[in-house]
């Protein structure tokens, strides 16, 4: 005669015996573990894509900044040339003679100060 054994009456379950409550719990744990792994992979993928987009945008910003720097260096060179032209003695002497009606001083007109 087969006697039914209920899992709740056993102190230790028989090896290989399936207990319905434990199967459900094991299934929930494996699903939860799978969801955690998928969520971690998804988060890692999103972080990787975000970091690559950030690097590309920083590259564009760097390229633009280098172009602005080059234009400013060129402008600086032009301004130095303009300063040199404006400071030239020949130009200043021409303005003094033509526009201000000045003449070169005679030797008696020069007074040296100490």
Unreliable spans: none
Mass-distribution shape: rod-shaped
User: Given the helix and strand composition, which structural class is it?
Assistant: mainly alpha
> Radius of gyration from the CA trace?
46 Å
Distance between the termini: 138 Å
In terms of DSSP E residues, the strand content is under 5%
Order of helices and strands: HH
The percent of residues in helical segments reads 55-70%
For the biggest sheet, the summary is:
none
Number of helices: 2
Question: How many strands appear in the DSSP assignment?
Answer: 0
Arithmetic mean of pLDDT: 84
Q: How many domains make up the coordinates?
A: 1
Question: What do you see in this structure?
Answer:
The protein has one domain (18-102). The radius of gyration is 46 Å and the shape is rod-shaped. With 114 residues, it is mainly alpha-helical. The protein contains two helices and no strands. The model has no long low-confidence stretch (mean pLDDT 84). The termini are far apart. The longest helix is centred in the middle third of the chain and has 68 residues, at 20-87.
């Amino acid at each position: 005669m087969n006697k039914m054994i209920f899992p709740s009456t056993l102190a230790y379950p028989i090896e290989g015996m399936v207990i319905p409550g434990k199967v459900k719990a094991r299934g929930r744990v494996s699903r939860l573990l799978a969801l955690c792994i998928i969520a971690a992979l998804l988060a890692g993928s999103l972080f990787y894509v975000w970091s690559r987009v950030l690097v590309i945008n920083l590259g564009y910003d760097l390229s633009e900044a280098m172009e602005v720097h080059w234009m400013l260096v060129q402008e600086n060179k032009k301004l130095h040339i303009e300063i040199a032209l404006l400071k030239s003695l020949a130009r200043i002497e021409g303005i003094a003679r033509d526009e201000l009606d000045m003449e070169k001083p005679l030797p008696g007109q020069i007074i040296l100060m100490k």
